[in-house]
What does this fold into?
Amino acid sequence: MGATTAGVRHTALIAMMVAIAAGCGNDSSAGDTPSNDQVEETSGATTLPPCNTMRRAVAFEIVGALMADDEEFNAWVADNVQVPRARPGAADLTNTYAAKGYEIIYFTLAPNNLPIGGVLVGDALNQWLDANGFARGPRTRLFAPDPDHAGRSDLPAIGISDELVRERSQGVMVDFAYGNSEDKILAFQTGGVPVANVFSMGDASGTAGSQAVPGDDLVAHGATVDALPKVCE
It folds into this structure.
């Protein structure tokens, strides 16, 4: 029964993600979502749009989703020595999305003036992403909030939602997002990521209408993502 249920959910999840990748997800802003009509057909063969005009993205919160443990990041900040481990399957997941044509946006709630080992947090995290084999290059970027956003007690993650709104204003459709706390999940949703397209882990699994990653297993989840079609060339 358990295995059968898991299989059904896995199949349903693939179907949902494929529908979103094809531009027919149930986003409340569906009018802004690229549709199948924007995929040209030439001589019976489907031609994908160029990635510089069909800009789709996936957002990842680094500390919660991509690192193995939040406390390892805190220890790294404290002593500049204990470098956090990457969550198994996390780097492959970002590379799989990138191979499908998605831009990758990395987020941290740490303020951009936070020093780690003599460099600012953005530089430290970029080095960490490089060292652990995450998707990198001109179609990836990292966002760290300014201290005013990072210090907001009412919504510490407001910098994430503001940045996602800015991305959307520049024509970037953020289809999926990953986080491990309710404030990040709500920030992704407030920023325009459809509620059910936010994948959650840890104590926040399934909160606020998000999709829980079973067992926080990004290796198994990566197989689901690998079934997605490419969104651009």
User: Anything to note?
Assistant: The radius of gyration is 18 Å. Residues 1-8, 24-44 have pLDDT under 50 and may be disordered. Residues 2-226 form a domain with the Rossmann fold fold (CATH 3.40.50.1000). The chain has one domain: 2-226.
